[in-house]
Amino acid sequence: MHKKKAETKKNRQKVSRIIANNFFILKMIYQAAPVYLVFNLVWTGVWSVLDFLQDAFLLRYIINGVQEGKTFEQLLLYIVLITCAIVVSSTVSSVWWNLLSPRMECRIRQKFDSVLMQQARNVDLACFESAEFFDQYIRAMNVSVEKAMEVFESFTGLIRTVISIFTNSFLIFIIDPVLIIFAIIPLLFTFFVKQSKKYRYESEMEITREDRKSAYTQRIFYLNDYAKELRVLNIYKVFFRQFKEAYTQAVIVCKKYGWKMALMEFMSSMGYSVLSAYAATLYSIWQTLGTGRMKYGDCLVVVNSISQVTYTLTDFSSRLGEFVGHSLYIENLRQFLDYQPKIVSGEKMPGHGDVCLQNVSFAYKPGKNVLENVCMQIHQGEKIALVGQNGSGKSTLVKLLLRLYDPTQGQILYADEDIRNLRLAEYRQRYSVVFQDFAKFSLSVRDNVLLRPTTEQDDPVVWDGLRKSGAYDLVDQMPSRLQTILTREFDDHGVVLSGGEYQKLSLARIFTDDSDIVLLDEPSSALDPVAEYRMYENMMNGCEGKTILFISHRMSSAVLADRIFLLEEGKIVEQGGHAELMQKNGKYAQMFRNQAKNYVSDSSFSANEVENPAF
């Protein structure tokens, strides 16, 4: 109960914030396509006036003119002028909506999507590990261009409504001032309109996570990544159950708010239909037929216009309610866009030199350190292997080096400068990185290797990287070679690679730039031990002079490193060269020998070969 009250209080907004949120969207539309916004606002006003002149005013003018004995020529002149104005405005409107407006709406869509994608790139990596962030992100995405156009439609609709209220009310007031009373009755029922909008927003917010679960399940069933498991295993039953539960929860929410919204809309329609429109009609007929104080044309205009005024007054209050509803959604967008990353750039340009971790500790959640008091000196040009069991903190250490996170305690120095003081983009450019769960993009081979905008002039560099990573022959045999699209998501002629082939392709990335440091977070898990050893050997030769830090579960590759660090439960428990650690006969030596026994039989593999492998 208290939680619900707190949520309701949270959803209430000040009028100033409601106005600011809606104008925030209008400002973004103006920045993307100023002509679109200005023309639509002006044209809305012009068309609203013409609509009044050809409808209520024209009807009154003709009928009263006949009753007053005006000539046909007098009536015809007004009709011709109105007709010409309508023809011109219809022509302009047709050209605008079919030729010009769609182009500008594309600009608006590009503006909104670009802003959201840029912010999604800038938020901290930690955000993507939060379910609450994902809910907020989905809500922000839902406020994209469609919601922006709804805000703009509400704004132009408000202009039409205000003009319609003013023109029709003025005409009714001239006919009989008493009729204004009937027109304003619906305003007494605006509370019900606002409540209906509020219930609709609350229902949509309540099912955000369920919608996300449904979308995830749908994605599972059409992505190639999961096709084999869904056909061979019974995991599909779990997703069907999750999908059903999500929709069941959505139905519960609909039941919870449906009757409330129906009641609110019924009450608002009663005020509009019964207490306003019908009562005004009866009054006008009585004044025309009973007392004779109202002309026939005036009576018809009242019957027509009182409904229009009543409707527009109701629509006016509804439009205001729309802005309140829009503001609640826009608030989600603004909170997402206003998020300030905790990983902020420093001002100093990074130099070149050693990497030093001084008493570094880190915890994803308070009270549970993943790394604890880690001290490590990596000299420029040195080859470092990071080994240890799963969950020992190896990948986390790589994330800290890249400043995807900052240490909870301690500091990381690069060229004797705290990396928090360095320019973030330039600092990260010092690294070439291949992650354990490296990305596979539905782009060309060239784009997947360079990971930046490319041209054909980059081809020699790409081919050199492919040659060093062992993927040259693979790409050379593809239909369009470097222009071949990977995956078939957008191209039926695209190529789908195996896990090992993808890894060779991803490793080509480290040979195509002039970075100082190479980070490899276990990128060769799909390769066999011999292929992995050769890959690392090629990497050592191809990255001569660069600092290399690589993570591997296979100890056979660690022998290529100048130094090896063994992590256990977030702490460095052993360090040194391969021969030195084998001589110590500690945990590293034990892990190495255990793995070596899995690769070859004891009878064919001597003790010397175990400790000094040469694949």
Overall pLDDT, averaged?
79
Q: Give the assembly state of these chains.
A: single chain
Output the strand order for the largest sheet: 6-7-8-3-9-10
Q: Radius of gyration over alpha carbons?
A: 35 Å
Beta percentage is 5-15%
Distance between the termini: 67 Å
Shape, please?
A: elongated
Helical stretch tally = 23
Structural class: alpha/beta
Helix content: 55-70%
What can be said about the biggest beta sheet?
Answer: 6 strands, mixed
Which features characterize this protein?
alpha/beta; six-stranded mixed sheet
Would you mind describing this structure in some detail?
There is one protein chain. This protein is an alpha/beta fold and 615 residues long. It is 63% helix and 9% strand. The strands form two sheets. It has a six-stranded mixed beta sheet with strand order 6-7-8-3-9-10, with helices on both faces. A four-stranded antiparallel beta sheet has the order 2-1-4-5, with helices on one face. Strand 9 (563-568) and strand 10 form a beta hairpin. It starts with a helix and ends with a helix.
